[in-house]
Amino acid sequence: MNISILAILAPIIVLGAAMTIHEFGHFIVARMLKIRVEIFSFIGIGPRVFGFKRGHTDYRLSLIPLGAYVKLGGDETNAAIEGEGASDIPASERFDLRPRWQKFLVIVAGPIFNLVTAFAVVFGAAMLYGVPPTPAPVVKGIRADGAAARSGLRVGDRIVKFNGAENPSWERIRNDALISPEQPLPVTVERDGREIDLTVTPLKKMEGQEVLGVFDFALDYGPYPVVIGSVTDGSAAAEAGIKLNDHLIAINGEQVSDPFQVTEYIERSNGAPVSLTIERDGVRQELSASARRVADGSLKLGIAPILNIPPQPVGLLGAAAYGVNRNLEMLRVTGNALGQVFSGKRSARDTISGPIGIVKVTSQAARELGWVGIFTMLGFISLNLGILNLLPIPILDGGAIVILGVEWLLGVVGIGLSTVVRERIQQVGFVLLLMLMVFAFGNDILKLFA
């Protein structure tokens, strides 16, 4: 498939698959428990657009593309959104008459299917391609007069504690920096047999409309080739003919050994033309480009140089461990970023993205990595969709689980939760969720014109 067409279709594929997987979890567990499923809307809520009916189930696409849903027989909790169900469903097939443990299994199945998908994507990639090697957190290079140099960090320092974590991996260090631009972070290094406490502040970097934190020091990965990891559309690099995956040999005749060296060289160029020696398909070429100033005032060619580090093959257990650890790390970073929003350390605008933001990132991933990028985004979206739905917000699965718990507690003292009360709770949850979606959508629009 043409890469441009794939980039256009990627958001539909990723979002559609993530939502369908979620609803299929509810669907298949309900069917296993012999609970009637009246509607399986793969995409959308509200009026039916088209579909087909098999047995008692209407498989369809709905008009309003806000998620997807499964309507269970006898469950009128979301009738205001999903419509009234059939009135002649046998008691043995009604969801509302089932024991709470069965209701819990049906409700929790959606998020679990998303979490399993997120694990499966990373696990499958690890089995097929291997896992990236993790270097020891030893400092290889520091930008002269940069933030790291001013903090007291030196070449050869080994990071033994970072932001409260003992013996941190470089992935954890980098991720904490990404969500903490211009925020001082405590770090302990080992130098000449002594441990020294320092404070390092990640620099603020604009990548598109996203605000990220980066360090002006590099770790020692070893002697791997430097390649072009991405090229910004319309940038000086793109106009010069630099392409994704070009092997960067030298810059102004100086041999390139790590991405940090390239970034520093470009920043020192003061906008003067720089000569880039690249290798593409075994042929060396000389290209010239002049860095331009971007929104944050820094000089950029519009490239992201990265080390071409071959992944290490792993077995079944290694791939499984990597799948679990990678997803736990993503959850940790996401949770910390949201925590910073509530504590006032981070702007909600810099943290929350809506459908437009997801479409942009997914399209870019497909354009740069093809199907690998699509599956990567599917894993990421599935992970976040699964966790989001477990939040104790009415109308979400987590809210439904909380209501089950409340009903159980009230039942202990002989009190029931009326249908009217449950409907009001769901309506409040729907309004809250709609407000969040409006905020995220508006945030996306503001970023487009920022």
Describe the overall structure.
There is one protein chain. The chain has 450 residues and is an alpha+beta fold. Among the domains are: 34-97, no CATH class; 139-219, Pdz3 Domain (Roll), CATH 2.30.42; 226-307, PDZ domain (Pdz3 Domain, Roll). It is built from 12 helices and 20 strands. It has helices at residues 3-32, 79-82, 100-129, 147-151, 170-178, 236-240, 259-268, 316-343, 355-369, 371-389, 397-412, 419-448; strands spanning 37-43, 45-54, 57-64, 69-72, 139-142, 158-162, 165-166, 185-191, 194-200, 203-207, 210-214, 217-219, 226-231, 247-251, 254-255, 273-280, 283-290, 292-293, 299-300, 303-307. Strand 10 and strand 11 (210-214) form a beta hairpin. The mean pLDDT is 84.
Which key phrases capture this entry?
single chain; 6-stranded antiparallel β-sheet; Pdz3 Domain; 450 residues; 4-stranded mixed β-sheet; 20 strands; 12 helices; alpha+beta; 23% strand
